[in-house]
Every structure is written in structure tokens, then in C-alpha cells.
Write a structure and sequence with these properties.
heterodimer; A: 363 residues; mainly alpha; 64% helix; globular; B: 200 residues; 0% strand; elongated
Chain lengths: 363, 200
């Protein structure tokens, strides 16, 4: 029964013209990634509340479903059936389109991210540049939301966010220059392959300062605590999304969490070897049959590394007080950018003497 | 076939967006139309397989320059009436520039029609050809001096812009964090010994 149905589906598929086959496969790939990202986003809101709850000696959500696991769905349904209120003095079109503009880049960036050795939607040469370009486009949603609302609190939030994101983007870009110097490629799959062979090969070790800069800049780019002055609920109530409600608010929330997942995954790919196994070089593990899965790379390693960074996002939020605005600017411009420039020069010296990832350069 | 359909679609959206920059009444809408124009030109570059230039156009112009532009436009209270009065005054100059550009474009098309430059499309790049690598290898070997001169000019512009905006305002209250950290109790608090005023 099942087999005949499968045969029928395959028969229909192979009867299609070649470009339609390609289109079908790519559409399925995109659907799979988008649904996976949205599910991760949904459950990361749950885990955030659980993690912060346990850090503050509370229980966290535990009413909806077993262990409160139904909570994200309850939240989504609540937000979907709420009314979207559009302020009467606002710029209506931009007000509606702003949440979409902040969500789209966060999802579109997944097109070039390799989930394992072969699963990548678009295996392009300039993947790293594409990611940088898309993460820099995401700021438009925030700015337009702040402006279109026609409220001074929202405008203040938008201004803060714009200045902050533009400042930290430079440090992020410079940190990635270090990564591409070490890997010699802009293709994300090749960057992961350059770190293959256990955790001693990860760029985390030779590029440690750049890793710190990239990760903290990533937290600042996503407007998360301790850099969440764009929301700053104690000063400007909720910043750029103060007038948003219902689905529009949910989209901003989705965009923020999708960006967190994206930054976590990118940090894992650039510095922690992506889908490569941390025990890749330990060939003696292959002799023990029930341990051989440890040395194989795959999606599970990327997922674990992503979860590690997501956890630190929540940990930061529970631990650190909010930065003062001028201190954020000082950190971005006067600390991070000099650190990255100095480390790029250090990398040049390391490449000259062929140490670390550059050891194969002379061969 | 598909290629030209896509080309004309993106080109028409680009022209429409460029017209929108000029005709929209709200300056913020103009900036957003300009962003759309940049996006479409990036796509046109992608279609001639110049993916490095296309992505850098989005990264630099859309991601950084236009954000700052939007920032400024939002802060300025643009007076539409005054801008309209300016329109009639600058009209002769604007018409002159437009005419010059039109003549240049027509010349270019004429030149191509007479085989003056490479007619037809580009040859497709071979498999495994990296645009970025090719650009980098030319930029850092053949044109390295021009490249570095451009970098120095940009640096000069940054320094000049900062110098122009750095002016000391009198009476400005600034924190000196080092002084704040180094302060000791005896600098701030004076303990005075005095007798009680009333006899108990």
C-alpha cells in the first residue's frame, strides 16, 4: 500500500520536466528549513522562560500541556486572535510592512547555511558576504516601525537601534574578515570543511578574540539583553514596537528570536566547526562500534552548538544589567573595532610563519 | 528567453522605483524607493554573474549608507512648500543635467549599434570561477596603488568629518570615568567636629 503510493509519487516526479523537478526539490528544502526554524523559535521562547525561571528560583511556565510544553502554541494562538491596532496618525503602509521587513532577512539568510555536508539550499561562493548583507538589511524593519508609528518613544527606540546596529556591524564584518583569512573561502561549507578534524582545528582557538567580538556583537545586533536599549522598557516603554499588537507584534517577536537562532548558528559555523564533529580526529573511537557516531559530523552537532549559544543568550539576560547607551557606543567603536583590526594584523603574522590553520600554506 | 523576461521585469521595477524617489511627497518614502532601486540594480548585477559587486552593493549602500540617510531624513523636518519653491529656481540647471545624461546615453547606444564596443551579452563564466577571487587578485596586484590611494582619501574624509563636527561647547557636562573611579572618600566628605549646640 505505502510502497505503491510512494512509487506513484516518484513516477509523477520523474515525469516532470527537469526545471520543475529542481523547483520541487528546492521548495521542499526551503519549507523544511523554514518550518524547523519556526519550531526552534517557538520552543526557544519556552526554554528562555524555563531557564530564566530556574536561574531566579521560579518554576516558569508549567500549566499548558505536560511540563508546560504547550505554552508557545498557547501564546501564538492568543496573539493571532488579537486585534491589530493601527494608530490613526501613523504611516499605514510602512506600519504594516515593517514587521515583515525585519522577519524576511532573518529567514532568507538560511538559504546559504549548510546544515550538514550536503544539505544547503544555495551553495554559493559569496555565502559569507550574503549573510553579512542580509543581517545588515534587518535594521530597516526596526527603523521603519519606529518612524511609521508616529510616537516619540518608538522613534527614540528606532534611533537607538539604528545607531547600535550600524556600529556593531562594522566589528562583526571585521571579525568575519579574520574567519575568511583563516579558511581562505567565502563559502560557508568550505569554512566548515576547513575546521574539520576535531576541536583542535576549530577557529575558536587561533581566532579567540575575534570569536568574543563576533559573539558579543551578535548579541548587540539582535538587540538582546544586556544591549536591549532599543526596547528599554524602563525608559521608553517598549521602544520601536510600543504601538504594535496581535500578529504584527508576534512577527517582531519571531524576527528577534529567528535572528538569535541565526546568530547562534553562524557563530557555531564560523568558530566552532558547524556540523563537524568535535571528536573528528579521534580515529580510535571508530574501533568501538557504539561510539563511532561521535566522530561522524552531522546536523546534530550543529544543533547542539546552536543550543549552547541560545542558552548563553538566556543566561546573559538573566545575569547582566542593561548597558548605558554611551557605554554601548564606546564598547563598539573604541574597544571592538581596534581589537579586530589588531587581530587581523596578528593573523597576518601567523600566516607568514605558517602556524595554526595556515600550517598547510607552504605545501 | 527566461533571462530577458527576468531582466525586463527587474529593470521596470527599478525604473518605477527610481521615479518613485523623485515623485513621492514624503522624504522617508523617497528613501525607501531608493533602497528598492539599489536592490533591483543588485539583482541586475547578479544576472550578469557579478555576484560580488551585487552583494557588496546591498551590504554597503542598503545596509549602511541608506540606514544613515534614513536616520538623517527622519530627524529633519522637511518643509515641502519651501522645497517646491526651490524646484522652479533650480529647474533650468536640472534640465541641463538631464539633457547631458540623455545625450551621453544616446551616444552609448549609438556606439554599440555601430560595433564600437562589445555587442551582445557576456560570455558565461566557466565552472568554479570565483568572482571575488578574480577581483581581489587584480585589486591587490595590478591596481594596488590606486586602491591604497582611495583608502587614504577615505581615511582623510573620515578624519576631516570628525574634525569639523568636534567643537567644544562651553559648559558641557562630561563624565570622567577615570576620575570617578579614582575618587576617595576624603575627597568628597569632610568630617567636621563640632560641639552640640544645646546643653543636654
Amino acid at each position: 500500500m505505502f510502497e505503491s503510493a510512494l512509487n506513484w509519487v516518484m513516477g509523477v516526479f520523474y515525469s516532470l520536466p527537469e526545471w520543475l523537478q529542481y523547483l520541487t526539490i528546492t521548495t521542499w528544502k526551503i519549507l523544511f528549513v523554514v518550518i524547523a526554524v519556526i519550531l526552534i523559535v517557538a520552543f526557544s521562547t519556552y526554554f528562555e522562560r524555563k531557564v530564566i525561571g530556574s536561574m531566579q528560583s521560579r518554576v516558569g511556565p508549567n500549566r499548558v500541556g505536560p511540563l508546560g510544553l504547550g505554552q508557545p502554541f498557547a501564546d501564538v494562538i492568543k496573539l493571532l486572535i488579537k486585534e491589530v491596532i493601527v494608530p490613526s496618525q501613523s504611516s499605514k503602509f510602512l506600519f504594516v510592512i515593517a514587521p515583515l521587513l525585519s522577519l524576511t532577512p532573518a529567514l532568507a539568510a538560511w538559504a546559504v547555511i549548510p546544515l550538514n555536508d550536503w544539505y544547503v539550499i544555495a551553495d554559493i561562493n559569496a555565502g559569507l558576504l550574503y549573510v553579512l548583507a542580509l543581517t545588515s538589511v534587518g535594521v530597516y524593519g526596526v527603523i521603519l516601525a519606529g518612524w511609521a508609528t508616529n510616537s516619540k518613544y518608538a522613534l527614540l527606540g528606532a534611533m537607538r537601534s539604528a545607531a547600535q546596529i550600524v556600529a556593531y556591524e562594522i566589528a562583526m564584518g571585521f571579525a568575519l574578515v579574520g574567519v575568511l583569512m583563516a579558511s581562505g573561502s567565502l563559502n560557508l561549507g568550505d569554512i566548515v570543511r576547513a575546521q574539520d578534524g576535531g576541536f583542535s582545528q576549530w577557529f575558536l582557538i587561533p581566532l579567540f578574540p575575534l570569536f568574543i567580538v563576533y559573539w558579543i556583537s551578535g548579541v548587540a545586533e539582535t538587540n538582546r539583553a544586556p544591549f536591549d536599549v532599543a526596547e528599554g522598557e524602563s525608559e521608553i516603554v517598549a521602544g520601536f514596537h510600543v504601538e504594535y499588537s496581535g500578529v504584527a507584534f508576534a512577527l517582531f517577536f519571531l524576527a528577534e528570536y529567528a535572528n538569535m537562532v541565526l546568530i547562534s548558528t553562524l557563530t557555531a559555523i564560523f568558530f566552532l566547526g558547524g556540523w563537524a564533529s568535535p571528536f573528528g580526529g579521534w580515529t580510535f573511537l571508530n574501533d568501538i562500534s557504539w561510539l563511532s557516531w561521535l566522530t561522524a559530523g552531522g546536523l546534530h552537532w550543529l544543533f547542539l552548538k546552536m543550543c549552547l549559544f541560545m542558552y548563553t543568550f538566556f543566561w546573559f539576560r538573566a545575569t547582566f544589567p542593561r548597558y548605558r547607551y554611551d557605554q554601548i557606543m564606546r564598547l563598539g567603536w573604541k574597544v571592538f573595532i581596534p581589537v579586530t583590526i589588531i587581530w587581523i594584523a596578528v593573523e597576518g603574522v601567523m600566516a607568514w610563519f605558517q602556524v595554526g590553520p595556515w600550517s598547510g600554506l607552504g605545501a | 528567453m527566461l533571462h530577458s523576461i527576468l531582466f525586463y521585469m527587474f529593470a521596470f521595477i527599478m525604473l518605477g522605483a527610481a521615479a518613485g524617489v523623485v515623485f513621492s511627497r514624503n522624504p522617508v518614502h523617497s528613501v525607501m524607493f531608493l533602497v528598492l532601486t539599489f536592490f533591483q540594480s543588485a539583482i541586475l548585477w547578479l544576472m550578469v554573474e557579478a555576484e560580488f559587486l551585487a552583494i557588496v552593493l546591498v551590504l554597503v549602500y542598503v545596509g549602511a549608507v541608506m540606514v544613515l540617510f534614513l536616520f538623517v531624513v527622519m530627524m529633519l523636518e522637511v518643509n515641502i512648500e519651501a522645497a517646491k519653491r526651490g524646484l522652479t529656481r533650480y529647474a533650468p540647471f536640472a534640465i541641463g543635467v538631464a539633457l547631458l545624461m540623455a545625450v551621453e546615453l544616446i551616444q552609448l547606444i549609438w556606439l554599440r549599434g555601430h560595433g564600437g564596443s562589445s555587442a551582445g551579452g557576456f560570455a558565461p563564466t566557466p565552472e568554479g570561477y570565483s568572482n571575488t577571487k578574480a577581483l581581489g587578485s587584480v585589486l591587490y596586484t595590478e591596481h594596488v596603488y590606486a586602491f591604497e590611494i582611495a583608502a587614504v582619501i577615505l581615511l582623510l574624509a573620515i578624519v576631516a568629518a570628525i574634525t569639523l563636527t568636534m567643537r567644544k561647547r562651553p559648559g558641557l557636562k562630561v563624565q570622567n570615568i577615570a576620575a570617578q573611579v579614582a575618587v576617595r572618600a576624603k575627597d568628597r566628605v569632610r568630617i567636621v567636629k563640632m560641639d552640640a549646640e544645646k546643653k543636654q
